Amino acid sequence: MTLLGHDEAWRQWRDALSGARMHHAWLLAGKRGLGKMSFAEAAARELCAEPGVAQPTGPHPDVHVLTHQPKDEKEERKRDEGKPYEVRRNITVAQIRAMQQKLTTRPTLGARRAVIIDPADDLEKSASNALLKSLEEPPTGTFFLLIAHRPARLLPTIRSRCRMLRFPALGERELADWLGTRAPEADAETREAAARAASGSPGVALDFVQRDLGPLHTLMARIVREGDEALDLRGRLAEAVGTRPDRERIAAILDLARAVLANELDRKGRNGWPGLIDAHAALVRLAGEAPTYNFDPGLLVMEIGTLLASAAPASERADA
Q1: What are phi and psi of 117, to 5 degrees?
Q2: Tens of pLDDT along 29-49?
Q3: Are 147 and 40 in contact (CB under 8 A)?
Q4: Is residue 200 part of a domain?
Q5: In whole angstroms, how far apart are CA 171 and each of 109, 183, 199, 253?
Q6: Which one of 64, 97, 115, 129 is least enclosed by Cβ atoms within 10 Å?
Q7: What's the pLDDT tens digit per position in 161-190?
Q8: Residue 193 resides in a domain
Q9: Is 25 found in the same domain as 141?
Q10: Angle at Cα 255 formed by Cα 82 and Cα 80, nearest 5°?
């Protein structure tokens, strides 16, 4: 099934697949939530399929996926029991080494196999260096699909060895209509708010609805537009987030805050409020630090609220 916005990516992939020489490494680039992993899995199965060879409907023996592992043995047990579990912050060099060991044998079902790394921009430095060796001298019949939400974080030498396949952001109207089919339980106002906040990402829009981020979006928008001198709105924001948000919810909240500022920038114009641009840049830095630092969730939410408040026009007048 072709997902929303994937038509051009499929055209380029299949043109290459039918050509005389398929490039051995692909970089699937685009913001989080565009369905890049779904594309990678389906594309890898097409790559490995051969006429007359039955293909499994479950996990494919020639499609190897490297992603975040459980952070410890306790979380491994949760995963094995089908429960939610916490993961490591990075893809490790040990995972790359284990993958490389598998590549010393022949593919199981045919002449080709695929290695998917999701996301490649979370590789440890040593893991990136180890992967580079495989990209420079790929084993015969092995193809790499690297998923990147922020391609600039990858080593330039890795990027230079990959063919780029870009996944574009979508329009608000297109997203809202899509949510009508994927999340019919959400009312029109929620779908439109999700489409605005998602900045073109179907996954983020769906996450907005499923995580019930509407109340947070309303509070964040009020803070940006009205300020929060008495700290009342920031207190309500912290209460709405909850006392123990998991890492995924924190990431969704950071994405939402950046989207609120980006939407306000579009509404006011980039020459309107310098505070908006500064606050957005600070949130981008905070989002980059959050996965690697043990922030107290309550303090992190208050910091998000403070950055939003600093972008309000009342804050600029107070600083003048």
Answers
A1: -120, 120
A2: 998 889 999 999 999 999 999
A3: yes
A4: no
A5: 41, 17, 8, 21
A6: 97
A7: 999 999 999 898 999 999 999 899 988 888
A8: no
A9: yes
A10: 10
